[in-house]
Amino acid sequence: MIWRLERATSSQVAEALAQPRGWAPSTVRTFLARMKDKGMLDADRVGKNWVYTATSDPTETRRSAWQSFAQTAFGSVGGALRFLARDAKLTRAQETRLLKMLGGLLLGLGVAATAYSVLAESPSATRLVAVPPLEAQPASGGLVQLEASDALRVARPEHAWATPLAAQELVALAERLRAGRPGAVLTVGDLSRRGGGRLMPHRTHRDGREADIPWPVDAQGDLLAPQAWELLQALSESGNIEAIVIDGELHEGIREAALASGATEQTLAPLLPESSAQATHPSRHVHVRFRSGGAS
């Protein structure tokens, strides 16, 4: 409210909050005093009134309040999101809204959980999962450079460093695609830089386990849904994928192509869940996160 009014007395804030919140003026004065003590507000004496102005950006203030609440009530932000995912008993509509709001964070924009179509213990596992903040997982070394071949194109060799397992899986993926469609070439976008660490402009891609694979498109840049479905099928055959991120806006076209090819709803469910997140800008690639450690 202070940010909306820019400058306000406690009476003005109380009047603005009386209808939606039902707060008494004394409650408002108490909260304003606490916010001032925490350095979130400045207060100037004007006549008989205190006039309050904000000292911080509203987004930063909300972030701080959210992190404090999550830490106090759930132990961490990740704990709060795990509660929402597993124990909050959200309705389907609430779940869908939550996933849409998280859509812009699918690639780990500083939070401890993201909405994933997960291929974890089995290909049928699809859920909202909590994962460690990816920026907190630098590579521990031992990355290898993914090499191009007749079946595999590397978009940027300087950003094509991967764990041995991830590199092995990408080569196998290219071979599966070519076996199913002779002449097919898999393009792999960013993985990690040599030695790992921050790879701009990504917030992920730090430890050699994540790969961006561009969607197959036609000359106009439109998605080739049948080939996209082939790619998802080939990915689902791997036993070493921890998570796949697919923009929900692309689901309908891929689903139609899959059903036309003979796929069943049971086959589609783990890869293209109905309550899927949609990013603000449709992603041009599928984001894949491989397991750590040896092959399973």
How far apart, in Å, are the first and last alpha carbons? 54 Å
Please tell me the overall pLDDT. 76
Strand content: 15-25%
- What's the CATH architecture name of the domain at 144-290? 2-Layer Sandwich
Low-confidence stretches: 104-140, 275-282
Structure annotation, total helices: 10
Q: How many β-strand stretches?
A: 12
Outline the structure in words.
With 296 residues, this protein is α+β, with helices and mostly antiparallel strands. Among the domains are: 2-54, Arc Repressor Mutant, subunit A (Orthogonal Bundle); 144-290, Muramoyl-pentapeptide Carboxypeptidase, domain 2. 37% of the residues lie in helices and 17% in strands. A hairpin with a 2-residue loop joins strand 2 (41-46) and strand 3 (49-54). Mean pLDDT is 76; it is low at 104-140 and 275-282.
Would you spell out the secondary-structure blueprint of this structure?
Elements: H1 2-5, E1 7-9, H2 10-21, H3 25-37, E2 41-46, E3 49-54, H4 58-74, H5 77-86, H6 92-102, E4 113-116, E5 127-130, E6 144-145, E7 152-154, E8 161-162, H7 164-180, E9 186-188, E10 210-214, H8 225-236, E11 241-245, H9 251-260, H10 265-268, E12 285-290
Parallel strand pairs: 7-9
Antiparallel strand pairs: 1-3, 2-3, 4-5, 6-8, 10-12, 11-12
Helix pairs in contact: 2-3, 4-5, 7-8, 8-9
